[in-house]
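Reviewer 2 asked us to include a model.

Predict the structure of this chain.
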Amino acid sequence: MIQPTLPLDGACRCGATRIRITAPPLMTAACHCTGCQKMTGSAYSLTAMVPAEGFEVIQGEPVIGGMHVPRQRHHFCPRCMSWMFTRFDEMPFVNVRPTMFDDASWFAPFVETMTREKLAWAETPARHRFEGFPPVERYEALMAEFVQAQAGPGA
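Predicted model (structure tokens):
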């Protein structure tokens, strides 16, 4: 796995809304849920879980879109409506769509979630697969393994 060079900037499709991360991702994922399929118009959504304090919007004012539910807010560019990131109440991270970054060559999903809803042909190189979301008690070990994989062999 490749570790991104920080800081890492990105933008929506039209460039009106720009973001930056200054902390390495805690983990990466692909979600196969039907909600993500509908919001992306694709087989799954991609996520880089970034510590909240290492994420910022540096240009523009994103709007809430997607599902309007308590504790989960999907943020979109108000001009081109690109789904850029998701914030969760009570969670210390932001789920950023890695394809928004100016350089996404480092990205690969480490886990894939909601595989019970995946399209039969949709495959990723993820190391771990979950029919739903990983059990809460697994996150710490998954994130530690992700960090070790990012550090490379012998680290």
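The radius of gyration is 15 Å. The first strand starts at residue 8 and ends at 11. We have added this to the supplementary material.
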